[in-house]
Amino acid sequence: MSEWILEAKGIEKLFPGVKALDGVDLQVREGEVHALVGENGAGKSTLMLTLSGIYQPDGGGIYLEGEKMHFSSPHDANHKGISIVFQELSLIPGLSIAENIFANRQPVGKFNMIDWDVLYSRTRELLALFELDNLDPSTLVKELSVANQQLIEIIKAISYDPKVLILDEPTSSLTEHEVTQLFENIRKLKKKGLSFIYISHHLSEIFEIADRVSILRDGKDVSIISVR
Amino acid sequence: MNSVSIKNILKTFGIVIVLVVLVIFFGLSTDTFFKVGNLFNVARQVSLLGIVAVGMTFVMLTGGIDLSVGSILAVVGVSVAKMMVVYGVHPVAAVTAGMLIGTALGFLNGYLVVKIDIPPLIATLGMMTIARGMSFIITSGLPIYNLPDGFQFLGQGYIGVIPFPVIVMALVFFLGSVLLNQTFLGRYFYALGGNEEAARLSGIDTKKYKLLVYSLVGFMGSIAAILLLSRINSGQPTAGSGFELDVVTAVVLGGVSISGGEGKLSGVLCGVLIMGVLSNGLLIMNIGEYYQAVIKGIVLLTAVGFDRISKK
User: Fold this and answer.
1) Which domain holds residue A130?
2) What is chain B's Cα-based Rg?
3) Residues of A in contact with B197 (CB under 8 A)
4) CATH number of the domain that A27 lies in?
5) Both A7 and A48 in a single domain?
6) Which member of A75, A129, B272, B298 lies 3.0 to 4.6 Å from B50 by CB, making a disulfide possible if both were Cys?
7) Least CA distance to B1: which residue of chain A?
8) Which CATH number fits domain B36-311: 2.60.40, 1.10.3470, 3.90.25, 1.25.40?
9) Containing H/E element for A226?
10) Chain A residues with beta carbon closer than 8 angstroms to that of B194
């Protein structure tokens, strides 16, 4: 068993005319919040998208619990233990909270029909984790506030029971109070051993929540700082 | 939260209110509208529209559209007629083959949209022209008469007091709403139209389901084609001209968003009934076809305008 829950070694990603990632290393410990910072264009997004299976790396390898991984799609990465919450919401507005969380894996009963009772009760359990018990699982996502939509997205990611959760600018649409709540939830999940990769522009947030910080510049990792 | 649900009630029942108002209006201003026979008449007149509207709802939920349904109606109808009359194919075999043809044309629409990446409006516009042309080629431009005895039952027959096409329509609506509301598949249609990228990221095979949805509307078009063939008792190459626009009108009236992801079959049923009630009521009131077209257009714009305003 490796020291790191997630390790990226020498990741390279080429786009026509650009080397977006040029041998990036990243190591994440179990139960830590690992922040990723850097200027726009430094390669943060590319690295994330590579770790979550949207891009395929052109070089290097991704190791989860010491085992080399290949993710054919984000869906595949989800099932293998890395989930991502995008900066832009990727929910389906016309479907309910429950259907969004369990998209593509709704529980089914007789005649392959959706088992709404099971679907709603599982959703209620997940909502309760985030003290969102007041929300009805059948509420359509488009009727929720942006902050709640974001939480639903995080709940969806967590429902895959990931080992590593990637959050991309998760506070961009949240109020101060909601940020505090989000951080409480992150700490709670940390205690359960979940690791986070946390991308943010806000240094104050990073100092509040992160354990270690990796800095990217021009597609390379330049330093790792321990905050705690 | 409360104001949201009031808006929702308006949004859901707005169209029902329009239907009720129309029914009351025609009921009061004519003697015959409310007669049972006439109400069955309305139901029979809208049955083909209703059947295809279910398929169109699926397509439009995914954010697409199918303009070829009217032409598919014709090409399936004349093919089945020609098989039976000219080649002496058994009606059951001919009908089965007709359904395969309709479904295959729908699949081809889906293929053009999904694999070749042609926008649905254009892909199905092309198919609309092709299928119409095929209908004329198959018939050499002349109607095909002398369909086998007994074939008329499908379009003209009754089970008890209920016209057979109405039973088919009810069945299609029932199965359609089970599919849409109780199965993965139906929920995927909403997902595709609501946020295709998100659907794809959730691991939903968006291309497969789009292919399926266009095939389904082709299939439903072929059911309508066979009922129509039987009702008019001849294979007409001009059958179903402009039908696609009636179907789209009914579906949009029913509250299905043109950009996809939103809408319900219950609303679509209301949209279909409004179209039928309008045609029938205006006919009874002796209002000519030209005026009918104008009035239908105004009703569509009013209903959709009302919907847009109530959403704000």
Assistant:
1) 91-161
2) 20
3) 90
4) 3.40.50.300
5) yes
6) B272
7) A143
8) 1.10.3470
9) strand A220-226
10) 92-95
Say if residue A145 is in the same domain as residue A96: yes
Establish if B259 touches chain A: CB-CB under 8 angstroms.
no
Q: What is the ipTM of this complex?
A: 0.78
Same domain, A13 and A61: yes
> Radius of gyration (Cα) for chain A, nearest Å?
18
Q: What is the rounded CA–CA span in Å between residue B45 and residue B13?
A: 24
Contact status of B198 with chain A (Cβ, < 8 Å)? yes
Query: Domain ranges in chain B?
Result: 36-311
Q: Which residues of B touch A75 (CB under 8 A)?
A: 201-203
Comparing C-alpha atoms, which of A198, A219, A214 is closest to residue A59? A219
What tokens were used for B142?
């002349």
3-state secondary structure of A89: coil
Q: What is the pLDDT along chain A (228 residues), one digit of tens a residue?
A: 567 899 999 899 999 888 888 888 999 999 999 999 988 888 888 899 899 988 999 989 999 998 899 998 888 898 899 999 887 778 998 899 999 999 888 888 878 888 999 999 999 999 988 788 899 999 999 898 888 888 898 899 888 889 999 998 888 878 888 888 889 888 988 998 899 999 988 888 888 999 999 998 888 877 787 876
